[in-house]
Design goal:
The chain is α/β, with parallel strands linked by helices. Helices cover 29% and strands 17% of the residues. The chain has ten helices and 14 strands.
């Protein structure tokens, strides 16, 4: 690595890159987007496979990126994803490669993704009840997700992690059932506090199920032992029943971990975001398409990260939700 890594003015070093490969999705989750979907990015504004790989290569070779996670929208609907993963897996030093998916087509793609070099997978699953799944996602596809989870295990994408968002009066009575399911199947469950990143802008703190409430619910049936040494991980981890099984809670709102953040984000249309909640972005796509050398891309990326704020500011009375929803930013 030459020229220095992605260091912000608070001394945090970004080594984890989240790459959104599409803003499109084959679900319509109520806490993410409206039933009719959103106005998708025009195809010509989305980075090509070659452009994606080039930006990631610059991050890995020049800026110290060591972990790459592909997100969306739903990343598995991008046709060239396996090819992109194969090229990223061939980089030196080889980064750890993960995908966050809704799991609908994971059974179909798990083999090719594993062969390409995928290391790990996170699958979103907010309920085990078919009626609720249909209500939450506006699609009757629970069985496809469950088959996808099993396929991930069969292809060695372990530990398979399950991401669950609890909503008050909707699925907050399933915390223990979700954990029991994951323990039985050998998955690692992570609860995520609902964040103000929905397209409908209906998020409210009163409706959000907090980490403390999640802990209280889980402890009605399980013994939780906190694990030290969280580092830059977004999740607080706990042994369940003395271990070795674990459960995690990502409390982005009530227990922010901004001081240890090591993430940088690339949107599907080539914008760098220093924070998930940023209201500004830095344009790499124009540089890419104007023939800029790698060194210029790297310098622009460093500049974007220099301006990273100390925290996301959700608790600040002046907080304003980012213009783009989560599906357009990438998780």
């Amino acid at each position: 690595m030459t020229g220095g890594g992605l260091v912000d003015r608070y001394g945090r070093v970004a080594t984890d890159l989240r790459v959104s490969v599409t803003d499109r999705c084959n679900l319509r989750c109520v806490y993410c987007m409206p039933a009719e979907g959103l106005a998708w990015l025009p195809r010509n504004e989305v980075l090509t496979d070659a452009e994606l790989v080039r930006v990631i290569r610059v991050g890995v070779e020049l800026l110290g990126i060591r972990e790459v996670r592909f997100t969306g929208g739903e990343p598995l609907i991008r046709p060239g994803l396996a090819s992109v993963i194969a090229e990223v897996a061939a980089l030196t030093p080889r980064p750890d490669i993960a995908v966050t998916t809704n799991g609908l087509t994971l059974a179909r793609h798990a083999g090719a993704l594993t062969a390409a070099g995928l290391n790990r997978v996170n699958v979103s699953l907010d309920t085990l009840r078919r009626d609720r799944f249909r209500e939450l996602t506006r699609r009757d596809r629970l069985d496809d997700v469950l088959v996808g989870l099993r396929a991930a295990v069969a292809h060695g994408l372990t530990p398979v992690k399950v991401n669950a968002v609890l909503m008050r009066g909707v699925n907050d009575d399933e915390a223990c059932d979700l954990l029991s399911f994951c323990l039985d199947q050998g998955y690692e469950l992570r609860f995520i506090e609902q964040m103000p990143l929905d397209a409908d802008r209906r998020w409210s703190r009163a409706d959000m199920v907090t980490a403390d409430e999640i802990f209280a619910s889980l402890r009605t049936r399980f013994t939780l032992t906190p694990l030290p040494g969280r580092g830059a991980s977004p999740a607080e981890h706990f042994l369940v029943g003395g271990g070795p099984a674990r459960v995690g809670v990502i409390a982005s709102v009530t227990r922010p971990f901004c001081g240890d953040c090591d993430r940088t984000r690339l949107t599907a249309d080539g914008q760098i975001r220093s924070c998930l909640f940023s209201r500004t972005e830095d344009d790499l796509r124009t540089l890419l398409r104007s023939g800029a050398p790698d060194s210029e891309l790297a310098q622009a990326w460093r500049g974007a990260m220099t301006a990273k704020p100390a925290g996301h500011g959700v608790d600040d009375p002046t907080f304003i939700q980012p213009p783009r929803p989560m599906s357009a930013i990438g998780g």
